Amino acid sequence: MSLAFSSLCGHFILLCFSLLLILRPGQAYEGLSDETLKALPRPSQEFDIHNGAILSPILQTRVPGTPGHDAVLDHLVNYIRTTVPNWELELQNSTSETPLSRGKEVPFVNIIAYRDPPGAPVGDIERLTLVAHYDSKLTPEGFIGAIDSAAPCAMIMHAMRTIDAALEKKWAAMREKGTDPAFEEERGIQVLFLDGEEAFEEWTNTDSLYGARSLAETWDQEMNPAMSTFKTKLSSISLFVLLDLLGSKSPNIMSFYQTTHWAYQNMGNLEQRLRSLGQFKSSSTDPWFIDTSKNSQQVVSRGGIQDDHIPFLARGVDILHIIDFAPFKGFSPVWHTMDDDAEHLDMDTVQDWTMLITAFTAEWMELEGFLGHSETVKARRDEDLVEEAIRLNKKTEL
Ligand SMILES: *[C@@H]1O[C@H](CO)[C@@H](O)[C@H](O)[C@H]1NC(C)=O
């Protein structure tokens, strides 16, 4: 056998093998059922603005380099350690001068938490990445930043717990069937709570996005192990979902990028389904996702809004920017004012957002059948048993 022929043969085998991988069952994209959407857990007491365990500790001033900032950092870290202890937790630290620091270096701490299928090679997993910033703006003095972005942080925290429980169930079910999630599952999930998003003086390329700029640069250079599917931690991000300025009533969310319009539409469709199933408490005459019925050609990519996604976008990461903004109204009226406080949050909207983010993530992670509700899961098991019985019956008939 000539060398050329043997390598051709090798290619052919590889091709067959890849086809097998592509065609293997269970890979088909499965949307969430109505039952699952109806059973999604809704945050309640934990989102109380006065003493709710998740949200209320974030509702304080948290300017980098101040005690309030460190308290919120601790809160987020403790939540992750205690609520989703199987997640990897990392802090990515950097320092920078700011226009007001008089030559002193201000510390910035990004919080990174991720969960991969157990045993999976770290460089072969791509991670849906949910992102919000946890710092608050220095001025006006006493600024709380409830929509900017205390509430988005809380939404992600709540979603993490639901998704984690469902992932555990999914992987346990895989093992039960004799498949190993380490090899059969290529999706992980990641959360970034970024620091130093706000400008200290006035928004410029250097006075803003301190945490995001540092992390994007670091991850662009940090290589995954040799032979990994994904070269860097940056390329391990399948989609960067940035939540910002959410928590006011009747938000308007635009689609900003043609390349991720399909993901935008998935979330817009879930919004409509949750609403028509009566799962949303907030009333709204118009849909939040105003561009859902547009096709991707009609999406005008405008580099317009400066936010934490920019350093990642510049390095080719796919972005879904979920921010309450529309040309006909601008940002929420409370934006960057003293009115952006706990009392001005529309709690029905905050809770609805949490359900929507959870649903989107669950669909992405293919968690149908594993979410919460034991009755839903049980009903599916019963269906499976009936199917199995029918199959066996057929066999005996033959
Ligand atoms: C990063 O900063 C945090 C909080 O200040 C600190 O606890 C941690 O030890 C630092 N990590 C590293 C690797 O320096």
TrEMBL record:
<dbReference type="GO" id="GO:0008270">
    <property type="term" value="F:zinc ion binding"/>
</dbReference>
<keyword id="KW-0479">Metal-binding</keyword>
<keyword id="KW-0862">Zinc</keyword>
<dbReference type="GO" id="GO:0016603">
    <property type="term" value="F:glutaminyl-peptide cyclotransferase activity"/>
</dbReference>
<keyword id="KW-0012">Acyltransferase</keyword>
<comment type="similarity">
    <text>Belongs to the peptidase M28 family.</text>
</comment>
<dbReference type="Pfam" id="PF04389">
    <property type="entry name" value="Peptidase_M28"/>
</dbReference>
<keyword id="KW-0732">Signal</keyword>
<dbReference type="GO" id="GO:0008233">
    <property type="term" value="F:peptidase activity"/>
</dbReference>
<dbReference type="GO" id="GO:0006508">
    <property type="term" value="P:proteolysis"/>
</dbReference>
<dbReference type="InterPro" id="IPR007484">
    <property type="entry name" value="Peptidase_M28"/>
</dbReference>
<keyword id="KW-0378">Hydrolase</keyword>
<keyword id="KW-0645">Protease</keyword>
<protein>
    <recommendedName>
        <fullName>Peptide hydrolase</fullName>
        <ecNumber>3.4.-.-</ecNumber>
    </recommendedName>
</protein>
<dbReference type="InterPro" id="IPR040234">
    <property type="entry name" value="QC/QCL"/>
</dbReference>
<dbReference type="InterPro" id="IPR037457">
    <property type="entry name" value="M28_QC"/>
</dbReference>
<feature type="domain" description="Peptidase M28">
    <location>
        <begin position="125"/>
        <end position="360"/>
    </location>
</feature>
<feature type="signal peptide">
    <location>
        <begin position="1"/>
        <end position="28"/>
    </location>
</feature>
<keyword id="KW-0808">Transferase</keyword>
